[in-house]
Amino acid sequence: MNWNNFEFHNPEFLWLLILVPLLAVWYFFMRKKDAAVLTIPSVKGFKVESSFLSKLKPLLYLLRLFALAAIIVALARPRNISVSKKTKTNRGIDIVMAIDVSASMLARDLKPNRLEALKKVAINFVDKRPNDRIGIVVYAGESFTQTPITSDKSIVKRTISELKWGQLEGGTAIGMGLGSGVNRLKESKAKSKVIILLTDGVNNSGNIDPRTATELAKELKIKVYTIGIGTNGMADFPWSKDPRTGKLNFRKQQVEIDEALLKDIALETEGKYFRATNNSSLKEIYDEIDTLEKTKIEEFKYYNYQEKFRIFVFFALGLLVLEFLLRNTLFKSFI
């Protein structure tokens, strides 16, 4: 018998097992009480023999008690349960991560810089979304789709890990970044469509007004979470490149993020605005977005019961048959 996932369907019957030791005690005392006693002054002249079978006579009663115990256990319905699970995932969420890759993303107020800090957090976010499709849009002074919406997370993570500054024209075109994200999602059939728009600056480039892109997102029921990345106050920004070594030179500069615009975009599209001022707050933001946008997963459990009471019924019947045979054969002369 497999004792894993074993249970009694009617465990209340097991209380009847208390009767078994009580009946055993009752039999012991009744046997002594019913024993005939003959008092004689002397046993001389009598041949006293102790029969081995007569000593085994209580075995018949024990067989009945064991049979009773087996019947009680059978009434309790012992059984094994095997559980199979089936998971049903509703259509996942389609997500576009619109990422600012302008030169200011190399600022060192996050460690080692904003872009590298983002890449680590974004890859971790992707790992937590196994049932969703994700696409990557990058923007600076212009924008383009780095990876179309896909369910292949390895491609998405590789794209994120390879993000770098210098691929696009300089500037910060928030409207174009958002517009490209909207364009990626306009044909989506997903029940929930989300853009995570991250920037560290002010819209100063591009031919799409951020508010126009916001209206398009709202019309298509695309929720936009906006993230402003950068500390409060001053930060080390790249301002020139050494022509001999190719290394960037940094200088202190005031952090400027158009929070009013980012808040409006989030508000109009029923999203939420976040401000990431350091590595830990950036991670917390993506964790919160992961919590807010959950794919509905239903789990169904199927129970298969294997009844074991028949074993105890047959065992009890076997004991009773054995008791009957012994009573009417070997022990017949002692009953």
Helical/strand content category: alpha/beta
Mean pLDDT: 87
Q: What ranges have pLDDT less than 50 throughout 5 or more consecutive residues? A: 46-50
CATH class of the largest domain: Alpha Beta
SSE arrangement, N to C: EHHHEEHEEHHEHEEEHEHEH
Strand order within the widest sheet?
5-4-3-6-7-10
Which superfamily, in CATH terms, is the homologous superfamily of the largest domain?
Answer: von Willebrand factor, type A domain
Q: Per the principal axes of the C-alpha atoms, what is the gross shape? A: rod-shaped
Main β-sheet description: 6 strands, mixed
Organism: Polaribacter cellanae
Protein name: VWA domain-containing protein
Keywords: Cell membrane, Membrane, Transmembrane, Transmembrane helix
Note down, in words, how this protein is organized:
The chain is of the alpha/beta class and 335 residues long. The protein has two domains: 6-33 and 52-84 and 304-334, no CATH class; 91-295, von Willebrand factor, type A domain (Rossmann fold, 3-Layer(aba) Sandwich), CATH 3.40.50. Helices cover 38% and strands 25% of the residues. It has helices at 19-34, 52-55, 58-75, 114-127, 153-161, 174-185, 210-219, 259-268, 279-292, 309-327, and strands spanning 6-8, 78-89, 94-100, 133-139, 143-150, 193-199, 222-229, 234-241, 248-254, 272-276, 297-307. A six-stranded mixed beta sheet has the order 5-4-3-6-7-10, with helices on both faces. A three-stranded antiparallel beta sheet has the order 1-2-11. The protein has a two-stranded antiparallel sheet with strand order 8-9. The protein is rod-shaped, with a radius of gyration of 41 Å. The relative contact order is 0.17. Residues 46-50 have low confidence and may be disordered. The chain crosses the membrane at residues 12-29, 59-76, 309-326. Keywords: Cell membrane, Membrane, Transmembrane, Transmembrane helix. InterPro entries: Aerotolerance_reg_N, UPF0353/GerABKA_families, vWA_BatA_type, VWF_A, vWFA_dom_sf.
